[in-house]
Amino acid sequence: MKTKRILATAAMLAAASGLVACSSDDGGGGSDASNCTNTITKKDLPAVTMWGWYPNMQLVVDNFNKQSNEVQVCWTNVGQGGDEYDKFQTAISAGTGAPDVIMIEMDRIPTFQIQKAIVDIKKYGFDAVKANYGEGAWKDVSVGDAVYGVPVDGGPLAMIYRKDIFDKYGITPPKTWAEYEQAAQKVKDAGGPLFGDFGANVPALTMALQIQKGASPFAYDSASPTSIGVKLNDQASKDVLDYWGGLVRKGLVGKQDQFTPEYISGVINGQYATYVSAAWAPGYLTGAGVGKGQDTGKFAVAPLPQWDPNNPVQVNWGGSAFSVTSQSKKQELAAKAAYGLYADKESLTDGWTNQIIFPLNLTALNDPAFVDLKVAFFNGQQANKEVYVPAANAYKGMVYSPFGQYYFDAMTKQVSEISAGSITGSQAADRLQEDVAKYAKEQGFTVQ
To answer: In sequence order, what are the beta bridge partners of 446?
Structure first.
């Protein structure tokens, strides 16, 4: 994929030679607010440009502009995810063309930080908004002590399950992974469906599950940008891969790639009793046709099973942030916009009401309307109160690497080998460690 090649090359150059792709004093084309998707009404105020892709960004930007008496936002959607990153990478390489504010998935922040393409916004009013988000949310947008984004949404993990299948086979939601395997065996022995799925194409989920067990895949700090800790074959990482590999080998869970028509069809038709996924999953599943027709009202959600129920660990999959680019000539104003976008109650409410996001702003997480919501997908269950909000509040954050896409691709390859029965989980972890550590060294990192 083009994005992967470009980002890997840029990260290598930045790490090995201290490349500064652009600076706040460079010209840059991002501050030209003459071509906006939205209409700016307060034309006497300075404007900053922004790239973002969520479906309700028009509303979010308009709400911010109505309330702000300091700065206006000129918004453009240049594409979602990889499409936007390709354009941003082109602007980084050219030293011009980036916006003032850019929407970035949290796991991509170190990739752009190491190129000095985004800036630390701590000096631009961080203390005034720090209390708006939890510890885990801030850690996910930070590299060391520096803050490179403002959290927007996240994906605390939980276990979605089919109530009809659980009722039929006398299963109660497992509280531990040992109970999960026992329940899976019980359903199989009774001739029931697969209990879950171990997809190779969801490496971020696998990483999160390893972190839940106690793994710390990476140690990376912007204060030491050419040094990185890579620990992918510790006992916790091996345990998780061996656990899921064992479930596949015993025929208790499937090995289907997720987000495919075949997998979604299986979810709809009751081929899986559980779906371990993030808080954004209900919105995705609804959009994919799940929970409609004959499977309406058959889904519920329970907390993520734990390894040690006396010491529960909550983890996250996914999430985005607003970052300020180093090409911006108006970094302080851009930071004010990043802090204020998707932070007002109307925008947040629209986001979670339409299942566009699972908000991380505590204004929403503490809002009774959100907490007490009876979620239609879960047949009226108060999923936020019972599962997702407690998980989000307990989440402590994780450390991402500057070459996250390479790591995810390597993880996908190894999980595929596990599911094919070619190697054990422990062997996969050893191979992954060797592969990623070698790659890191090739990019100019000192691997700890």
So the answer is: 227
Assigned token pair, 372: 């007490």
The closest alpha carbon to 357, from 345, 366, 348, belongs to: 348
Q: Measuring CA to CA, which residue among 188, 213, 370, 384 is closest to residue 305?
A: 213
List b or e across 239-249, with b for residues whose CB sees 16 or more CB atoms inside 10 angstroms: bbbbbbbebbe
Q: Please choose, from the candidates 336, 388, 342, the residue with its C-alpha nearest in 3D space to the C-alpha of residue 363.
A: 342
The pLDDT tens digits of the residues spanning 354-385 come to 989 999 999 999 999 999 999 999 999 999 99
Of 151, 135, 277, 162, the residue nearest 209 (C-alpha): 277
Domains of the chain in sequence order = 2-154+319-375 (3.40.190.10), 155-315+399-447 (3.40.190.10)
The answer to whether 334 touches 48, Cβ cutoff 8 Å, is yes
At 447 the three-state DSSP class reads strand
The string of DSSP codes covering 290-324 is: TTSGGGTT-EEEEEPPBS-TTS----EEEEEEEEE
Grouping H, G, I as helix, E, B as strand and the rest as coil, residue 12 is helix
Print burial letters for 196-209: b (CB count within 10 Å at least 16), e (below 16).
bbbbbbbbbbbbbb
pTM for the model stands at 0.91
Alpha carbon distances (Å) from 149 to 32, 91, 180, 336: 22, 19, 37, 12
**Number of other residues whose CB lies within 10 A of the CB of residue 254:** 21
Which helix or strand (DSSP H or E) is residue 73 part of?
A: strand 72-76
pLDDT in tens, 257-278: 999 999 999 999 999 999 999 9
